[in-house]
Write a structure and sequence with these properties.
8-stranded mixed beta sheet; 4-stranded antiparallel beta sheet
């Protein structure tokens, strides 16, 4: 059994006086010690999916309309809020996009790391402080004694992100959800953070759900990948297969628009149009209006994930 099993997850938000589906019938599987990349354009539903897994969406305006989320055998949608709080920060942890808005500016770094330990362990104060120092060392922060006394605004973006990772790792989670963990960082720091996550995965054996729009990151760090478009998973595959033989036209378009260091130079290909917003998605395949491989069936009938050898695509006219 997978550590994380998501089946048919459907999430809606109340907008314009009615509930509009933002995420529809999402299926995901993630095993212990593996990294799954969830990729797609901005607005396709990646972050909503991540927050749904953590049960962090405010209800209302959000509501989960269907599906199931099973984590280590537990049905997360059946748990009350008290039970979810016991899981969050303990066995299930998340790194958010922007650490400056996720860390509390009025509390020191040490206080915020120790808070998780105080909530989820019986460690005395001295042991919590030693554990916090160990965590800062593990994520590559020098002079940890000084950093514990500092406030988030006194740290650089890269250091704040490392503090967020240290907080997420405080109780040794089984699953770490990383939502665009390097978005606001420069390229050098991005590489350091991603290498840190990969090393910690190897050392601790935890599973990682890495949410990103960067296919280069997926190629280097992920074992498997799920491509999301307009709230749906349109392709799932082992990472090597996806880059060698993309089956969904949207995936092929994303790969074609990625800059390369070798080969002919010139204008990068683009995918015309934009992701349709909730409530304005066309009947049939939501990618049909932008697709070069569109056939008549695409405009009226929604395709479902199908394929073989673990490589699935939701397309009536996939590339082979």
């Amino acid at each position: 059994m997978s550590l994380l099993e998501v089946r048919g997850l459907t999430v809606a938000f109340r907008m314009e006086g009615r509930f509009l589906r933002v995420v529809e019938k999402v299926d995901l599987d993630l095993d212990r010690g593996r990294i799954l990349g969830l990729v797609g354009e901005s607005g396709c539903g990646k972050s909503v999916t991540a927050r749904s897994l953590m049960r962090l969406l405010p209800e209302p305006p959000a509501r989960i309309e269907g599906g199931s989320i099973r984590f280590a055998g537990n049905d997360l949608l059946a748990l009350d809020e008290a039970a979810m709080r016991r899981l969050r920060g303990d066995r299930l942890a998340m790194i958010f996009q922007e650490p400056m808005t996720s860390l509390n500016p009025t509390w020191t770094v040490g206080f915020q790391i120790e808070e998780a330990l105080k909530l989820h362990t019986d460690l005395p104060a001295a042991a919590r402080r030693e554990r916090s120092l160990e965590l800062l060392r593990r994520v590559g922060i020098g002079a940890p004694e000084r950093r514990l006394r500092q406030y988030p605004f006194e740290l650089s973006g890269g250091l704040r992100q490392r503090v967020m990772i240290a907080m997420a790792l405080a109780c040794g989670p089984d699953l770490l959800i990383a939502d665009e963990p390097t978005t606001a960082l420069d390229v050098t720091v991005q590489a350091q953070i991603l290498e840190l996550l990969a090393r910690l995965r190897a050392e601790l054996g935890m599973a990682i759900l890495l949410i990103t729009h960067d296919l280069g990151v997926v190629a280097e760090f992920c074992d498997e990948v799920a491509v999301m478009y307009a709230g749906r998973i349109v392709e799932r595959s082992p990472v090597t297969d996806l880059f060698v033989h993309p089956r969904h036209p949207y995936t092929a378009g994303l790969l074609a628009s990625t800059p390369r260091l070798r080969g002919r130079r010139g204008r990068l290909p683009t995918i015309p149009g934009s992701v349709p917003p909730p409530g304005r998605r066309p009947p049939g395949c939501p990618f049909a209006p932008r697709c070069e491989r569109v056939i008549e069936r695409c405009r009226s009938e929604m395709p479902h994930l199908a394929g073989d050898d673990g490589h699935l695509a939701a397309c009536w006219n996939p590339a082979r």
